[in-house]
Amino acid sequence: MNELFKIKKIASIAAKEAGSYAIEKLGHITEIIRKRGHNDLVTDVDKSCENIVIKHIKNNFPNHSILAEESGKSTGKENFTWVIDPIDGTTNYAHGFPFFCTSIGILYDGNQVAGVVYDPNRKELFSAIKGNGAFLNSKKINVSSISDIKNSLLATGFAYDATKAKKGLDDFAVLLTSAQAVRRAGAAAIDLCYVACGRFDGFWEIGLAPWDTAAASLILEEAGGKITILNGKKFDIFDKEILATNGKIHNQMTVILKKTRADENNN
Ligand code: IPD
Ligand code: CA
Ligand code: CA
């Protein structure tokens, strides 16, 4: 257990250093590369932030494995794996829209055991250790108590691949008329943390990667939230879709999302 507190401490230091670097370089990007399509960007700052996080891991836990968005996998002798998104919200970052974060999730034998998400614009550090609750800076956080979807504030995101985005748009249309409002801010890890601290009541997205959800889905669970895939079945960070709520509106969202899919199949 002590090991997990040390891991969370190092992850927090690493995420804060990466976040400060991102703020320092905001507006001074020197390189933008398109990864899998015109809209899927990576900047020199994403890579440098990732190197900052990896430096801390290697200095403190040289035998841990790493799965990082920009540099891929490296396998160590111990059973811990660090899953890194150096900048979640790169499109926002490239445009100077202040909604991005560094996300670091830690797995033991493939199971989520700790996670931190740092938003350097607001200096907000969301964190959790399995079984120990979720925190925003030093304050314990909990999901909201909204129980009727029509009073809820929801969030979503859309995949860079427009063919996958189409499904999300159908869901968006239906949920927009079911909820009080829906937001699309462009950083899935922050969206999930906002459900964890009650700013949002639910979040869904299709087309995600493990580094988007590895830290924040644990933070949300530890804050009392519920996470599944869209049809209500068990979620794993390697699943590409997520439905994450305060728990109270989960069934209402699953019913709506199942219906959108049934309607699509009938058309
Ligand atoms: C993206 C953001 C965005 C979500 C995309 C992700 P990136 O991550 O989380 O909100 O809609 O699906 O890929 O590329 O900025 O790290
Ligand atoms: Ca991401
Ligand atoms: Ca990223």
Which ligands does the model contain, each kind named once? Answer: D-MYO-inositol-1-phosphate, calcium ion
- Domain unit count: 2
- Given the helix and strand composition, which structural class is it? alpha+beta
Order of helices and strands: HEEHEEEHEEEEEEHEHEHHEEH
Q: What is the strand content?
A: 25-35%
Q: Specify the CATH architecture of the largest domain.
A: 2-Layer Sandwich
Query: Number of helical runs?
Result: 8
Family: Belongs to the inositol monophosphatase superfamily.
Cofactor: Mg(2+)
Protein name: Inositol-1-monophosphatase
Keywords: Hydrolase, Magnesium, Metal-binding
Can you put this structure into words, describing what you see?
The chain contains eight helices and 15 strands. The protein has 267 residues and is an alpha+beta fold. It has two domains: 139 residues, Fructose-1,6-Bisphosphatase, subunit A, domain 1 (Fructose-1,6-Bisphosphatase, Chain A, domain 1); 118 residues, D-Maltodextrin-Binding Protein, domain 2, CATH 3.40.190. The strands form three sheets. An eight-stranded mixed β-sheet has the order 4-3-5-6-7-8-9-10, with helices on both faces. Strands 12-11-13-15-14 form a five-stranded mixed β-sheet, with helices on both faces. A two-stranded antiparallel ribbon has the order 1-2. Helix 1 runs antiparallel to helix 2. The radius of gyration is 18 Å and the shape is globular. The chain starts with a helix and ends with a helix. One calcium ion binds next to strand 5.
